[in-house]
Design goal:
By secondary structure, the chain is α+β, with helices and mostly antiparallel strands. The chain is built from 3 helices and 8 strands, in the order H-E-E-H-E-E-E-E-E-E-H. It has a domain of 96 residues: Ubiquitin-like (UB roll). The protein is 13% helix and 31% strand. The strands form 3 sheets. The protein has a 4-stranded mixed sheet with strand order 2-1-6-5, with helices on one face. A two-stranded antiparallel ribbon has the order 3-4.
Length: 160
């Protein structure tokens, strides 16, 4: 993916037919000014993480070619890898039919994306125990880095 012209503007949202069939990128941010971003590995297509982007994070991602997000818990912009060094280089970005979500295919630079030390944030499956109660089972859950060594503190509740 090449970087965007820093002076670009997102298109104004038009009729559903224009949004669904047109070529203009007119992202639909929610009432909090956010759009959902699903991040996948460009080579394997494995889902790595889910995050949110505001207008500035989306612009910076398009401009730099590296993933930026908006932290809802910290209420601030963050670049993936700003603390860990585990940067996400954007290979391709897609949007869904009504442009209220983006799918970002990335080349992962570093051992993993999850602040818990795993390659992916999706390391548990939701299953039902014998009584029918939902429980979590660990899959692909091996840690690939030590979060304390990378972040200098125990993992927080949201990715860095």
């Amino acid at each position: 993916m090449t970087t965007a012209d820093p002076s670009f503007a997102f298109a104004k949202r038009g009729a559903p037919s224009e949004i669904e069939e047109g070529r203009d990128f007119a992202p639909k941010f929610d009432r909090d000014g956010l759009i959902t971003a699903v991040v996948v590995d460009a080579a394997s297509h494995a889902v790595l993480m889910l995050a949110h982007m505001n207008d500035e994070a989306l612009r910076r991602t398009l401009d730099s070619g590296e993933a930026h997000f908006f932290s809802r818990s910290r209420q601030r912009l963050w670049k993936k890898g700003e603390e860990s060094g585990h940067v996400l280089r954007v290979v391709e970005m897609r949007t869904d039919c009504d442009q209220d979500a983006v799918l970002i295919a990335v080349e992962q630079v570093g051992a993993g994306v999850c602040h818990t030390g795993r390659r992916s944030c999706f390391y548990r499956t939701v299953t039902l125990d014998p009584s029918g109660r939902p429980v979590l089972d660990f899959v692909d859950a091996d840690k690939v880095f030590d979060p304390k060594a990378v972040y200098g503190k125990p993992p927080a509740t949201e990715p860095r």
